Amino acid sequence: MLTWHTAAFDDLTARQLHDILRLRSGIFQIEQNCLYADIDGEDLGALHIFGTDDAGRLLAAARLFMPGDIYQGAPQDMAWIGRVVVAATLRGHGVGHELMRVCLATIRARHPTAMIALSAQAHLQRFYAAHGFLPHGTPYQEDDIPHIEMRLT
Fold first, then answer.
1. Alpha-carbon Rg of the chain, whole angstroms?
2. I need a surface site. Which of 21, 28, 108, 138 has the fewest CB within 10 A?
3. 115-141 per-position pLDDT tens digit
């Protein structure tokens, strides 16, 4: 079982930031063999959700942007979920679904009526659909990986 944490960028410890970036680079850059700029400046304005085990190891994370946050041209009334990652050793054990529930609850607690969207890797559409997200628009390539915008119904 993981313990879930929520922190603005300036409230993250150096170790927490290191561990978030390490997990993300290990998955998005190394595992998926994708060279892209993960440190994109957006983390500064994000709310970070992350889960640690009893030993304090960070094993899952996501970043949230609330309505009104400036995030890559998103509509001002929309919340965004991004950089959703779960350590490979925990995949298939429900941790990703738990992370999504924490993300959605966090957004709803702060902005009960906000629209919520995310940019999903196309192969994960069923995962996000299990949380009520539906495809919006047409698929597109991002960093040579097929993606689709999805919005919560």
1. 15
2. 138
3. 999 999 999 999 999 999 999 999 988
